[in-house]
Write a structure and sequence with these properties.
Distance between the termini: 33 Å
Shape: globular
Radius of gyration: 19 Å
Largest sheet: 7 strands, mixed
Number of helices: 7
Order of helices and strands: HHEEHEHEHEHEEH
Structural class: alpha/beta
Strand order of the largest sheet: 1-7-6-2-5-3-4
Number of domains: 1
């Protein structure tokens, strides 16, 4: 009986979390970011403030989920994210990975799906913060390199989408191309979710049998120069992608 009540509460609490996230995003789009545009006229300064607001709201949302009993979490090596000009690559087991990472990283930049920029619950934050759309075509890689070189911390999931529940997804070569062409080292982040939940194709109401626990490990930087020795950028990118695929598969 107690287990059933606990499960029912977590289903309800999860619904509350999704409702809160959606309404909060819509209110920020309608009220907060327009006000920010009135008081901060400079576009770059407005972006800095917008990214700080997103970081604060995401951190509050994570604490809200924990307080409701939906999840618990632990973070290791968070101090490595308190630098500037990082290329942060992470695996992507759950829907809320980006919420965790952005809450931890100052001046976080992201590559986002074009559909999110049209979603009324997310487009306000995306536009105000100046996140990079994945529909930029040939300019995408140069925009990502420029973001890191400007001192922002770029967060990318090399899989391009969430990991399927029944296995790992293939890594796209875009993240490796950014690192190789930009001569950028990588800050890898390993994310575990126990038991698995909110994976690709999984409905929000498919709540796991117990409260899930997220473990985030920020690893030491990976120098990418060695992948370029005696070869072309294309081959170096392929080598780096293969290395990252093996590296992230260790999480499973």
């Amino acid at each position: 009986m107690v287990d059933r009540l606990n499960y029912a509460w977590r289903v309800l609490a999860t619904a509350i979390c999704f409702f809160t996230f959606g309404i909060g995003g819509a209110l920020m789009w309608v009220l907060v970011f327009p006000a920010l545009g009135v008081f901060v006229r400079d576009r770059d300064r407005r972006g800095v403030h917008a990214r700080a607001l997103v970081r604060f709201s995401f951190a509050a949302f994570i604490r809200w989920m924990r307080w409701l009993g939906v999840l618990t979490y632990e973070i290791h090596g968070a101090e490595r994210l308190q630098r500037r000009g990082l290329l942060v690559l992470a695996n992507h087991p759950t829907l809320i990975d980006v919420v965790f990472l952005v809450s931890l990283i100052p001046e976080a930049d992201c590559v986002v799906r074009s559909g999110l920029a049209r979603n009324p619950f997310t487009r306000g934050a995306i536009r105000a913060a100046g996140y990079i759309g994945n529909d930029d075509g040939p300019r995408l890689i140069s925009a990502c390199i420029a973001s890191v070189r400007s001192g922002k911390n770029l967060v990318i999931f090399p899989e391009g989408t969430r990991t399927p529940k029944l296995g790992s997804g293939a890594l796209l070569r875009g993240a490796a191309n950014i690192a190789i062409r930009g001569g950028l080292d990588i800050t890898p982040v390993l994310i575990r979710c126990i038991p698995p939940t909110l994976a690709k194709g999984e409905k929000w109401y498919h709540v796991p049998p117990r409260r899930f626990h997220v473990v985030i490990e920020v690893k030491g930087d990976l120098a990418t120069a060695s992948f370029m020795l005696g070869t072309t950028e294309a081959i170096a990118s392929r080598r780096l992608t293969e290395w990252l695929s093996t590296y992230f598969s260790s999480v499973e």
